[in-house]
Amino acid sequence: MRSTCLLLCASSSASGGGMEALRVFAAAVIVVGFGLLATTAVFSRLQRNRFVAALIAGGLPAVATGWAIGPGGLNVVDDSTVLLLRPLLVACLGWVGVIVGMQLRASLLATVPPLLWRWALTDSVLSAAIAGTGAAAVLSWWFLPGSFGIETALVPTTLVACAAMGWSPETRSMRVVLTPSTQQMAMLIQGASGIAAAVAVAVLGVAAQLIRLQPDGTPVLDLRTAVVDLALTAATAAALGVAARHLLGLARRKRGALLVVFLGTVAAAAGIAVDLGFSPLLLPLLCGVMIANFGRERLASFELFIMRAEHVVALLLGLLAGVLLTPRIGLPGTGLVVAILAARILVKPVLARRTLGPVTHGDANRSPLRFAPLRQSQLSYVLAVSVVLAYDAPLTRTVLTAIVFAGAASDAVPLILGFRRHREVAQERRSVAGAEA
Amino acid sequence: MRTVLGLLLSLVMLVTIVAIVRDREHASLLPDARDAIGELVRVPPAGLVGTTTSAAFLLLGAWLLGELLARIRLPRVSGYLLFGIAVGPQLSAMLPGWMPVLVPQEQMQYLGLIDALAISMIALIAGGEIRIDFLRSIMRRILILLACDFGFILVGAVGGLLLMRDRIPFMAGLPASTATMVALLIGTFAVANSPAIVIAMVKETGADGPLARTAVALTIFKDLCLVIVFSALLAAAAGLVPPDPGSAAALAAPADHSLVGSIAWHLLGSIAGGGVIGLVMQALGRRMGDRMDVFIVGAGFFIALLSDALELSPLLVGLAAGFVQANLWPRSSEAFFHAIEDLSLPVYCLFFAVTGAGIELSAVVKLWPVALVFVALRMALTVGAIATGNALAGFAKEGRWLWTALIPQAGVSIALATEIGRTFQSHDWAVPLKSLLLAVVAIHEIIGPPLMRLGLVRSGELKE
């Protein structure tokens, strides 16, 4: 009880509001309810169903709920609420960055087969080239006359390019028949997706740091400053990473102390990055790399501990992406959607077939799993949210919306293909059973 | 020794990193900044951008200093508070050029948002500590101690202040009725203590015994009574001393029935709401498995936001929710309370560090002699009140050091001081009075936790 009821009465009448109170209350119910739903055993069971898994993998339910409660829907969460939650959301971005970085453990990367590296990197380069070129063309047409330049277009273009990189690691909904071959395909798809995710975060982070914003909002590209900034980012990440490892040692596996160290590191990495005008994902990513690779102590219990909240963080960022949506994207936004989808359709199935085909002795050509890389990763929303939080303008919100729309569209096609193959297999089984009878 | 050096080194490194970051901070955008398609950029308010770093800094730094102090047998809570004081905006404002601004003043309002969440979690823990059979067994004791505490401190403080009225600068020359009302407000303030510090101390030290349990129950019940007494007093003060238009007292004055309704809603609504939340949490918590910690943070947010939206007390809502779970389902709620104890450390670190950062150091520097007299008077009255209460309740032996738990002051006392200052801001006496009260809180925050630890050690409920 921080204040008396008199104080509360006064503040409530002064701010005009019962409606305001109800608004906050409704938002709390929806957001907390959503978070709770995600942590229930019922939800875990539901995820075993391939239809639900396919729907959830792209993060669309969270985005749709965010849109429903945001200014575009019921307006229970508006821009002012998002502003108030900003410190928490920045920490969530840091969480994602650190988790992605912690996957880049040298000992783990050494076990990755060259095939997987080749697939992930070729896909990243080709997808980024196609989507980036498309995005640059759209932006050059959309920007005010004389505004288009590398300074203004670099971050939005790279964001679109990074959204096209990689894919959703979810494979359950596409695995119609469980064979050793499909299991191997699923593992390869997940592995390459992880590498591509780290590449996307790093590329966007570096691009964001090349550009400095003047106080009047004008972006400036100064390579010398950018190099210094990158060095400063690496140094800060190294210092934080080393400090975090040292503090983890001091925490001595006490859960409360571990939580303090992890929350503090994640929030510090993302917060410092934002304060210095850097990407809130790159510094935490490098910090995660340092934590994973520095020191001899095993981090298994620590990793398990931080993974537990992973999907709650993903849900929160998905909700935020929904709140920030501006569905009237017009022709420029549609152009960006087309650029992303073109990159996905032109690059992903071909590369997947070429990579998976020889490994699975041709099984890949029949399995719907070869279309799994068509689906956009949920990380693309996180990348877009990080850009909007750093520079909240109609331009960045339109790019975010385009990425969400492209994600929704990319989810639908392989889902349909998967279900069709599922029906075919069921039919085959029935006919075999009938023949045997 | 190696650990102490490690802690010190980490602390220095942390402060250095944040000092460098503050020095190189990115300039914020101007409000009329536009993007490449000519649309306005939404610029976040000053102070909001750096809040994430400050929260992380306070969390890590408070934990490190708390661990350091624990090595020299001082309470960790003191470490959390001291770290907040050391890096807060007040100290850097007092030592310009000497002390870098590590947590700017404009961030304090955003860091304050953590308060409600922290209070909800602390209250959940406290509610779980209160068992109905224990409460029944000590109810008589609590009522006697409450009566003695309120009686002694109110009468003593009011009497003392009225007697010395001509020597207190801001009270000299006030009409008798106004002086009495001011003395009563100060007296009520003197009764207040900090359930949050008491609960944190008991959990941190692991003290278990009649003194620790009575201290938790007594401070919580005192808090409940204080809401009623202070609200009624503020309304009465509004009748005697014309309040400022728009202030809380002015709004409440015309309709006294609404005041009764507000108090009833605040107390009963909070307890009933907390009870319902406790039932829902119990039903949901059973299915959480190893995700209990995420569930608890969500529940803490829910209680904080619900209390804010429905004008309830997060402390009472949390207390009732914890109480219902611990008493209706003692076995199945064990996992819940076990998980919440793990989570309590970051909550305590951040909550007390933010509280420390908000301490009015300038008031302490300016008014320390008067504030020290006030602190001594309050301490003497508390010792007398508890000694009398213990004797009447038959708790003299175990409760000899109970008074030490009633010395710490924090959030509630700051709210009372701020409200007095806000309600009567146009009166000459309001500003110096508020400063004095904030200086007193600052001293109590610093001396309270070590004193309580000493009391727990002396009573034998905490082994050195």
Give a concise summary.
The complex is a heterodimer of chains A (437) and B (464). Chain A is mainly alpha-helical. Chain A has 19 helices and two strands.
SSE-based structural type of chain A: mainly alpha
Order of helices and strands of chain B: HHHHHHHHHHHHHHHHHH
Question: What kind of sheet is the major sheet of chain A?
Answer: 2 strands, antiparallel
Percent helix of chain B, as a range, is over 70%
Describe the structure.
The complex is a heterodimer of chains A (437) and B (464). By secondary structure, chain A is mainly alpha-helical. Chain A has a single domain, classed as Na+/H+ antiporter like fold (Up-down Bundle). Helices cover 75% and strands 1% of the residues of chain A. Chain A is built from 19 helices and 2 strands. In chain A, strands 1-2 form a two-stranded antiparallel ribbon. The model of chain A is unreliable at 1-17 (pLDDT under 50). With 464 residues, chain B is an all-alpha fold. Chain B folds into 2 domains: 2-107, no CATH class; 114-459, Na+/H+ antiporter like fold (Up-down Bundle), CATH 1.20.1530. In chain B, helix 3 runs parallel beside helix 15, helix 7 (132-163) packs antiparallel against helix 8 and helix 16 (361-393) packs across helix 18 (430-458).
